[in-house]
Amino acid sequence: MLMYLAPATTRRSGVVRSVVSWLLVVALALSVAVPPVPVSAAPTGHDAFMDTWARSDLPVAAGRISRTWMWGPEPFTTPLREPYADAPGGTRLVQYFDKSRMEITDPALDRSSPWYVTNGLLAKELITGQLQLGDATFEPHPPAQVNVAGDPDDPTAPTYATFGSLLATPPLPVGTLVTQTLDRSGTVGEDPALARYGVVASVHVPETNHSVASVFWAFMNSRGTVYTSWRFREDALFPNPFYATGFPITEPYWTRVRVGGTPRDVLVQCFERRCLTYTPDNPPGWQVEAGNVGQHYFRWRYEQLGQVPQDAGVYELATVTNVVDGDTIDVRFADGQTARVRLIGVDTPEVHGEVECYGPAASQFTTEWLNGKQVALERDVSETDRYGRLLRYVWVGPYLFNELLVREGYAGVATYPPDVKYTWRFVEVERAAREEQAGLWGACLVSPVGGGQEPAPAPPSTPAPMPSPTPTPPPSTNCDPSYPDVCIPPPPPDLDCGDIPYRNFTVLPPDPHRFDPDRDGVGCEAS
Length: 527
Fold this sequence. Notes:
Number of helices: 9
Radius of gyration: 27 Å
Distance between the termini: 40 Å
Strand content: 15-25%
Largest sheet: 5 strands, mixed, barrel
Strand order of the largest sheet: 17-18-19-22-21
Helix content: 10-25%
């Protein structure tokens, strides 16, 4: 459920008819800063992971709010399969982010449940060394000698192993000022001067017999901008206070660690799923942060313990080498093979032949987002269309780009069975885009996309220009009657003028490929 940019408040109305106007539309589109996606960012590849990320972190990525990432800007691994005894088939789908790991243990569970995607008990495993391989299946290993907070090379910072001897420490009484300190060796001390920060033990959690520091409890129960149902809104940051963290497994401790090389006072408390830190010197919104437990755990499991990552094979990686138009790209695979890819389920305005409203803006948007980037190509049912183009969903970083195009108003929904895996999502995001007059829905008087939803045009008041000679089509029984002078098959797939050799040919309603956007009876008019 993604909206990737803030809706523009300076959308233009009317049909853009001139080159100057088109350039203005492109400039308006580019004036909105896009969330940065590194060239080699790992794509997400599962829409439930994407939705979970988007709820808390899309507002951060889009600049809607300044606060800690709960997952990170994007995944740093491809989707993996990890052994889990209680999952169907004995493995489950996971993906690692800086701050945690997302998991789908049982794909048959209710997708609407906030627990459909879980984040592992990573901090607990790192502290105890007990690698969890099932609900009650564990494999013993040494605890992780990895710094919990501060610079990773700080030789005095506490590690996950440091907390191993503190799991059974009695809880601080509620209301007690937190002034206890902790060093790397696990020695607990007291520093009354730390009372100046005003942190107290706020609530006792009987499940684990530990108290939660007030700054962390406030964060776990905070409200702010989240992203749900394809819209930004104000809501609880977490559906449950313990959703992201799990229960506390240690008490809060002050420690002195280096942050960017500078020694700072940092409060640390570990929970089952994450360790939270509080740095009073940080700016508001970033004082409470989730540690990089996802990075730490991955390094422990796959580097220190020597396990081998197993790719889930949900997509194929490629590099975008050229953008043909808003919904068509050229890619190169790791083996050097190249292909042209048509994005499934969406349709952007035409830029070949007669240029349609918002067509150049859509092409520019796709170029800015994809050209030169590593993307993931996900197949639905069909391998190619009849013109040899691969039919794929395109993932870039944490985003499903097909959906991004629709949500930002650069494309409409174009559904061609049997490739309908994400149709329900695309329909919902188009509804949101229309409601907000995003992109072409606010800039174009007559929509150039949308699968024939516009009313049929009135007959032209002036005679249409005579079509110029076109190549003689081969005999065929699969020619769409909207194009009587040439042989063009009906959709699917949706074709653009750049996909066919014909120009200036007769077009009759309903024109399913929309070769005649100005409805003068002539298709793909040569300039």
